[in-house]
Automatic annotation (TrEMBL):
Name of the protein in question: Endopeptidase
One GO location term (cellular component): plasma membrane
Gene Ontology MF: a single term: metalloendopeptidase activity
Family: Belongs to the peptidase M13 family.
GO biological process: protein processing
Database matches in Pfam families: Peptidase_M13, Peptidase_M13_N
Residue ranges occupied by any Peptidase M13 N-terminal domain in the UniProt entry: 11-389
Underlying gene: pepO
Cofactor dependence: Zn(2+)
Span of domain Peptidase M13 C-terminal: 446-636
InterPro entries, alphabetized: MetalloPept_cat_dom_sf, Peptidase_M13, Peptidase_M13_C, Peptidase_M13_dom_2, Peptidase_M13_N
Keywords: Hydrolase, Metal-binding, Metalloprotease, Protease, Zinc
């Protein structure tokens, strides 16, 4: 069915003109916080794969490989709801007992490496990624833990969202602790202690806005410095054991947190920390137990996002199984529903967009010659991953399911896989970086640029209507997937991506004058969005600047590519751009995202960026006095 578009409204509000009729009738499913755009594509994939996997479980569909066979065994186990009811909280008990057995920091310190590999919570976080200064090798990163509330700003005095969320969280946790076998009074004491410790942590970790600035991520510290952050835990021995070596440096993304660690881990705080470990464990693992525990464990996330109900049993089983075997499922989906022809076509489109970008850089008037040449070199070295990986990550060949008959439960299998995954991650330390490795399943409706690897990735799932189709006109495709492709390329030159060179190493390849000019332009993009009213709050221009720069550059380059095609139709280009951002969301979700999401709200992404393009005004004859009009001197043009 063709969309009904109110052309008279385009000059007032492009997004509403394209999506207004849809918005009137669209309803958000009870187990969702959004509908439209990306969500619809995800729902369709879910429907397709759930039907396929029903056949797989029934034995009518044969697994293509060993990994798919293990996925089948795990899916069978998570779908055995009777067994989950029979098991009750028993699978969780060994982990709670292990925490309850701690009588001092020394008890935790003695088993710290094993504790981390098991996947139990710790008051700090360690992980492996490409060394930001030497992208050929993997390095060890250290950061603070995740807070109970969505962001540290929620811990500020008089934060209204926190006042609504904290009671919901405490009520949910009281119920989960009781379901796990604790007395109510006991549960309440643990929760009080845990939330007190969480409040102590909050001032020392980064907010979403602070975390969005990659220039402040690279804070190398020696092993001794990290180890000396606390006298209560032997971090030195744990780290050496985890990576099977002695790191000369550890990259602290939140140095202020490690400066505060000694004051957080004191004898006075031990009981609080222990309660915090119990709280995190119960909160994180209860969803894999009985139906009552699974339903209860979603209460808090539902309150945050405005979802009215938990996912059905069947959908939750699907989510869990496909989440654990995400690359295996991605391989199946990509090969069956996307295929080599579309893979090649999109790859060609990406190359075309890169060439448009190169041409624009070559003709750029505000960049100096050396910076321009370096930027073009970065594009020449840009890794392109489209559709699905050539092979399944070898990690999944290590996943072996222990069936119910052999004493396996959902949780015991999950924790086994967690350990295998953690061991695999830490084994990468100091090894050469694998730029061909995918971090997202091919069945995920998304795309990304990774500055540490200088790669762009477009999973098969996003490469469908309205974003892309071999049956759509070129202008529609460029207004959809073309703009998304160029958006990801633009990330290589946003305020974060521009800090990294052609190999993905943190390296200032800009001249001082070019850098100053770029930051002036970036500041214009901050101002363009900062303070825009939305969902009863205001957009944070600093938090969203990198995504807005990428949107601006992406849309502008996609437009140039569309104009270069023989069947160019700018009307169709702009209308499809507005259509891909179609979304209806609960007020709770909109408000949450305004606090923590690096993307601007979908409607503003659709409307604001077109106002920076001269062709928008001529295509729809938008004149001064029209709401969508923006004076030429106020149009932000970066790439």
């Amino acid at each position: 069915m063709a969309d009904k578009i109110d052309h008279s409204l385009i000059k007032t509000d492009l997004y509403d003109a394209v999506n207004g009729e849809w918005l009137k009738t669209a309803t958000i499913p009870g187990d969702h916080s959004t509908t439209g755009g990306f969500t619809d594509l995800s729902d369709n994939i879910e429907k397709t794969l759930m039907a396929d996997f029903k056949e797989l479980l029934a034995g009518n569909l044969k697994p293509d490989n060993d990994e798919m066979n293990e996925f089948k065994q795990f899916y069978q186990l998570v779908s055995d709801f009777d067994k989950r009811e029979k098991d009750g909280s028993a699978p969780l008990k060994p982990y709670l007992d292990r925490i309850e057995a701690l009588n001092s920091y020394q008890d935790l310190s003695d088993q710290l490496a094993d504790w981390i590999l098991t996947g139990l919570p710790t008051p700090f976080s360690l992980d492996i990624d490409s060394d930001m200064k030497d992208s050929t090798k993997y390095a060890l990163f250290a950061s603070g833990p995740r807070l109970f509330l969505p962001d540290k700003t929620y811990y500020e005095k008089d934060n209204q969202a926190a006042k609504q969320l904290m009671p919901v969280l405490q009520k949910m946790m009281t119920a989960l602790f009781q379901q796990a076998g604790y007395e109510e009074a006991q549960a309440k004491a643990i929760i009080e202690n845990a939330t007190a410790f969480d409040k102590l942590i909050a001032p020392h970790v980064k907010s979403a806005e602070e975390g969005a600035d990659y220039s402040k991520m690279y804070n190398p510290r020696s092993l001794d410095q990290i180890a000396d952050s606390t006298e209560k835990l032997d971090l030195r021995t744990a780290i050496k054991s985890l990576v099977h070596g002695t790191p000369e440096k550890i990259i602290a993304t939140e140095p202020a947190y490690f400066d505060a660690l000694n004051d957080l881990l004191t004898d006075d705080h031990f009981q609080m920390m222990k309660s915090w470990l119990l709280f995190k464990t119960v909160m994180g693992l209860s969803g894999y137990l009985t139906e009552e525990q699974r339903q209860t464990s979603t209460t808090y996330s539902r309150a945050m996002s405005g979802r009215k109900e938990a996912r059905s049993q069947q959908k939750a089983a699907y989510d869990l199984a496909t989440g654990v075997f995400d690359q295996v499922v991605g391989d199946y989906y990509g090969r069956k529903y996307f295929g080599e022809a579309a893979k090649q076509d999109v790859h060609d489109m990406v190359v075309k967009m890169i060439n448009v970008y190169k041409k624009r850089l070559a003709n750029n008037t505000w960049l100096g010659k050396t910076t321009r040449e370096k930027a073009i070199l970065k594009l020449d070295k840009l890794g392109i991953q489209v559709g699905y990986p050539d092979k399944i990550d070898p990690l999944y060949s290590k996943f072996r399911v222990t069936a119910a008959n052999d004493g396996g439960s959902v949780l015991s299998n999950l924790m086994t896989f967690t350990r295998i995954r953690n061991e695999d991650d830490f084994s990468r330390w100091n090894q050469p970086v694998d730029r061909t490795r995918w971090e997202m399943s091919a069945a995920t409706v998304n795309a990304y640029f990774h500055p540490f690897y200088n790669i762009i990735v477009f999973p098969a799932a996003i490469l469908q209507t309205p974003f892309y189709s071999l049956k759509q006109s070129s202008s529609k495709n460029f207004g959809g997937i073309g703009a998304v492709i160029a958006h990801e390329i633009s990330h290589a030159f946003d305020n974060n991506g521009s800090l990294f060179n052609e190999n993905g190493s943190l390296n200032n390849w800009w001249t001082e004058a070019d850098n100053a000019h770029f930051h002036k332009l970036a500041e214009k993009m901050v101002k363009e969005f900062d303070g825009l009213p939305y969902a009863g709050q205001k957009v944070n221009g600093k938090l969203t600047v990198s995504e807005n720069i990428a949107d601006g550059g992406g849309l502008s380059c996609a437009l140039e590519a569309a104009k270069g095609e023989p069947d160019a139709d700018l009307n169709a280009f702009f209308l499809n751009w507005a259509k891909i951002w179609r979304q209806k969301a609960t007020p709770e979700r909109e408000q949450l995202l305004l606090s923590i999401d690096v993307h601007a709200p979908a409607k503003l992404r659709a409307n604001v960026q077109v106002q920076n393009l001269d062709d928008f005004f001529t295509t729809f004859n938008v004149q001064p006095g029209d709401k969508m009009y923006r004076a030429p001197e106020n149009r932000v043009k970066i790439w």
